[in-house]
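Figure caption, in words: inputs first, then the predicted bound structure.
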Amino acid sequence: MKVLLLGVTGNVGSRMLPALLAHKHQVVGYVRAPAKISPEARSKLDSIVVGSASDSAAIKAAILSHNCDAVVNAAGLAAMTGWTSQGEFPTIFAAVVQAALEAGRERGGAPIRCWLLSGFGILDSPKKPYLLLDYIPLFPSHKRNYKLIKSQPADTLAWSLFCANQMNPKYDKPQFPPSVDTLASNLVAKADAPPAWAEKYRKVPLIGNYLNVMAQAQSYFSVLENCVDFMAADLDKGLESEWIGKRVAVKEKSKLN
Ligand SMILES: NC(=O)c1ccc[n+]([C@@H]2O[C@H](COP(=O)([O-])OP(=O)(O)OC[C@H]3O[C@@H](n4cnc5c(N)ncnc54)[C@H](OP(=O)(O)O)[C@@H]3O)[C@@H](O)[C@H]2O)c1
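Bound structure (NAP present):
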């Protein structure tokens, strides 16, 4: 696929690039500060578009002019709390969604395939209709973003939200090609709720559900390079992916009980 990658200078996006290339995707980098792209990444990108990730019209133009079939958004960073402001991230998320939606419509035919970085908190908790974020109210913008996209029909925008908890890089720098020990096969994945979730502390009166979430959240920390390989590998399936229209949760196989 030809992929427009936003956030290629960031923690996630810089590692997403080698993962996409390893799966034979062509990558157009969309950045606001091209001087920050490493020489190695620069030499591997199909092309570079300079623009703001909050500029929906510019993102749409990049998708259309480079004839991209897919968009991966790793631009912007969710603020940890919403006590003062949620920062620019919700604006970026909305701009990317609108751009991909309109580009798909204008081009006609198949919708744009879209992986959007999101957060662990918007996964379902075992007590419906609550989300994990209702028990640990961190990174609130993910909930706002999920609200925006969840009613979006998959035949207009083929979206998936990647809802990892903290992702820790195994290697200090992006590896070209990615190391063979960092692959999606190290993960188990599930739609809409965390895989292998245990029913811990649920019977403790009043605070049981809170304890349940807090006790388990850390066991969902994952290796960043495994996660980017997961999304890059999934793009191989195009519009046949089982994750379209889903929040996607992962867990390291090494952390399964
Ligand atoms: N890291 C994790 O453990 C983790 C866990 C769960 C979810 N996530 C989500 O993953 C996403 C990426 O996180 P990250 O850790 O890679 O963040 P990061 O290292 O701060 O990277 C953010 C990227 O966004 C770009 N960016 C920000 N505002 C922009 C704008 N207006 N126009 C164009 N580019 C812009 C930055 O470009 P500049 O280099 O120019 O600043 C940078 O490339 C976020 O949505 C985050 O919430 C991360």
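The first strand starts at residue 2 and ends at 6.
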